[in-house]
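for the recovery benchmark. C-alpha cells below, seq after
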C-alpha cells in the first residue's frame, strides 16, 4: 500500500502497427452519397424565378444576330418575365478573340443591360466556365446553340437551356407554368 508501481513499456510494443479488425459481412456498410441541393426537391428547380438570370454563350449571340433577334426582348418574349443576360469574362474574351468580323456581337455583349460575371480561373474556354458556374449555382438558365455544351448541361439536374429554333428563342427543361408555350 502506498508504494508506486512503475510500468516499463517496451520500445517494440509502441512501434507495432495497429491491428486491423476483420470486416463483418453482416454489418451495415457505410458509403458516402453526394448531397443534392434542396432546390431540386420537386421535379423542377425551385430557385428559378423572375427575374431570370441567363448565362449567354458566344455562339448564342452570333446566331441571334444572324436570326435578327434582339437578345433581351426575345428572352422576355420567351419567358414572359424580366430577364437579365449574364456574360462571363471567358465569353467576353472569346468574342474579343473572334476579331473585327464579330464586332457587332462585341457591341451587344458590352450592352449595359448585360450583367458581367468575373471569372476566377485560368484560361478562357467558355464552355468549361459555364458548366462549372451552373454546377455550383443552379440559379441560371444557359443560353446556347452549341450541341456539345447542351449535352454537357443536360447532365446537370435542374438547369434549363435556352436555344434558337424557327427564328425565335425556345427553352427546354422548364416548367410549363413559366413562359411562352413550347413549339
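predicted aa per position
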Amino acid at each position: 500500500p502506498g508504494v508506486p508501481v512503475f510500468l516499463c513499456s517496451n520500445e517494440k510494443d509502441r512501434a507495432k502497427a495497429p491491428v486491423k479488425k476483420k470486416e463483418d459481412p453482416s454489418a451495415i456498410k457505410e458509403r458516402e452519397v453526394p448531397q443534392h441541393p434542396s432546390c431540386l426537391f420537386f421535379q423542377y428547380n425551385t430557385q428559378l424565378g423572375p427575374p431570370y438570370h441567363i448565362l449567354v454563350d458566344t455562339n448564342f449571340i452570333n446566331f441571334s444576330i444572324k436570326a435578327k433577334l434582339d437578345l433581351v426582348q426575345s428572352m422576355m418574349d420567351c419567358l414572359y418575365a424580366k430577364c437579365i443576360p449574364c456574360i462571363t469574362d471567358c465569353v467576353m474574351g472569346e468574342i474579343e478573340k473572334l476579331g473585327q468580323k464579330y464586332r457587332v456581337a462585341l457591341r451587344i455583349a458590352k450592352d449595359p443591360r448585360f450583367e458581367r460575371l468575373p471569372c476566377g480561373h485560368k484560361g478562357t474556354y467558355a464552355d468549361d466556365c459555364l458548366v462549372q458556374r451552373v454546377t455550383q449555382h443552379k440559379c441560371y438558365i444557359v443560353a446556347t446553340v452549341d450541341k456539345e455544351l447542351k449535352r454537357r448541361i443536360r447532365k446537370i439536374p435542374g438547369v434549363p437551356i435556352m436555344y434558337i429554333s424557327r427564328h425565335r428563342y425556345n427553352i427546354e427543361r422548364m416548367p410549363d407554368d413559366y413562359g411562352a408555350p413550347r413549339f
